[in-house]
Structures are given as structure tokens and as C-alpha cells.
Design goal:
The protein is mainly alpha-helical and about 250 residues long. The chain has a domain at about 75-225. It contains two helices and no strands. Helix 1 (about 1-135) packs antiparallel against helix 2 (about 140-250). The longest helix is centred in the N-terminal third of the chain and has 132 residues, at about 1-135. The chain is rod-shaped and about 165 Å long.
């Protein structure tokens, strides 16, 4: 009789035990998705932090590259400015010193040639006057006067050469050199302006790159804040759900 009562008790408790096991199993299955969601949120935060760190590095790199590029361009401007100043100084020196000095030297040679002609003319005139008054051998007279005439002719040729060289110096060599220096100065002006334009362009490009990097950094910061906010909201939701379940169980 006792065995029959024990068997009946086991049979009555069996459905209740099965329900408890099923409830426990369901509770374990329900907790698993919550754990997976938490891990996913944590991964999003880690990824957002990593991307934010990379964005900061990109911004720092962009700043360094911009500073380096601008430094190179500005150094180029300084070099062109120095070259332009040197060209201007050379042209000024040529016009103020070199050209007048060379022309003065040519004028001295020209004046010297004119003096030689004048002296030769005076000497020849004196010889002619002397031989016209006194009685000298005809042969000696011809020799002396011939030498005087040749000296005068040579002096005149030297004068003509000095005049031609002086004219060629002023209108040829000096004029060409002045034109060359003026062209070098003009080219230096162009190169300096071009270098300044490159600096302005580099500044615009640097500004654009930095603004882009700052925008990406701000986006990564917002993404991190969003991920952390989502994690907090998820934790609050889980906490509220747990509290509601506890109240319902009570």
C-alpha cells in the first residue's frame, strides 16, 4: 500500500518538475541574446574609439604635412625674392657704375686719339712752315714731311677706331648687357610672383585638408558618443526589465 502511495506522489510531481525544467531552460535561452547584444555594443565602442584615434592621427599628420609644404613654398619665395633683389642690384650697379665707367674709359681713349691727331697736325704744319722758309735738300724735306703726314694719318685712323669702338660700346655691348640684366630682373619678378602664388595655393590646400581631417575627427567623436549612449540605454533597459520582472515575481 505504501509503494502505491509513493508512486502516485511521483506521478503527481512529474508535470510540475517538467515545467520547472522547461522554465529554467527558457530563462537560460532568454539571457543568451542579452549577453550577445552587450558584447556587440562593446565591440562598437572599441571600434569607434579605434577610429577616433586614427582620425586624430590623420589630423596630426595633415597638420605636419601642411606645415612642411608651406615651409618649403615659403622658403622658395624667399629664394626668389633674394634672386630678384640680386638681379635688381646688378642692374642698378651696371647703370650707375659699370656703364658710366666703361664709357668714360672709352671717352678717354677717344680724347687721346683726338689729341694725337691735333699734335700730328700741328707738327706737320710747323714742318711745312719751316721747310717753306729755309733752304733744305729736297730729299730731306720729303722724308721729314712724309713722316709727319704718316703720323697724322695714323692718328686719324686711331681716332676713327676709337670713335667706332666708343659707339659700339654704348649702343652694342653696354646696351645688350643692360637689356640682359633688365630681362633677368623681369624674369626674377615673374618667378617671385609665381612662388608667392604657390604659397597661396598651398595655404588653401592645407586649409582644405585640415578642415576635412577635422570633419572626419568630429564624425568619429559623434560615433563614439552615440555608441556609448546606446550602451547606456541598453544597460538601463536591461535594468528596468529586471526590476519589472522582480516586481512581477513578487
Amino acid at each position: 500500500m505504501k509503494h502505491c502511495l509513493r508512486l502516485a506522489s511521483v506521478l503527481l510531481l512529474l508535470p510540475l518538475s517538467s515545467g520547472c525544467v522547461l522554465a529554467i531552460g527558457n530563462k537560460g535561452q532568454a539571457a543568451s541574446p542579452k549577453l550577445g547584444a552587450t558584447e556587440e555594443v562593446d565591440e562598437e565602442i572599441v571600434e569607434a574609439e579605434r577610429e577616433l584615434a586614427l582620425a586624430k592621427l590623420d589630423l596630426a599628420l595633415a597638420q605636419k604635412k601642411s606645415e612642411h609644404a608651406l615651409a618649403e613654398k615659403r622658403e622658395g619665395v624667399e629664394q626668389k625674392r633674394a634672386a630678384r633683389a640680386a638681379a635688381a642690384k646688378e642692374l642698378q650697379l651696371f647703370q650707375a657704375v659699370t656703364r658710366p665707367h666703361k664709357l668714360a674709359a672709352a671717352d678717354i681713349e677717344l680724347d687721346d686719339a683726338k689729341r694725337d691727331v691735333w699734335e700730328a697736325e700741328q707738327e706737320l704744319e710747323e714742318l711745312r712752315a719751316m721747310y717753306a722758309k729755309e733752304q733744305f735738300a729736297e730729299r730731306a724735306k720729303e722724308l721729314v714731311l712724309g713722316r709727319g703726314e704718316k703720323s697724322l694719318a695714323l692718328a686719324k685712323r686711331k681716332l676713327e677706331l676709337a670713335q667706332a669702338e666708343r659707339a659700339a660700346l654704348e649702343s652694342g655691348e653696354l646696351a645688350q648687357h643692360a637689356t640682359k640684366l633688365a630681362e633677368e630682373l623681369r624674369q626674377a619678378d615673374v618667378e617671385q610672383q609665381f612662388a608667392q602664388n604657390e604659397v597661396a595655393l598651398a595655404e588653401l590646400e592645407a586649409h582644405a585638408e585640415l578642415e576635412k581631417a577635422r570633419g572626419e575627427l568630429a564624425a568619429k567623436e559623434r560615433a563614439l558618443v552615440k555608441a556609448k549612449t546606446g550602451a547606456k540605454d541598453g544597460e538601463k533597459s536591461d535594468k528596468d526589465g529586471a526590476q519589472a520582472g522582480a516586481k512581477a515575481g513578487a
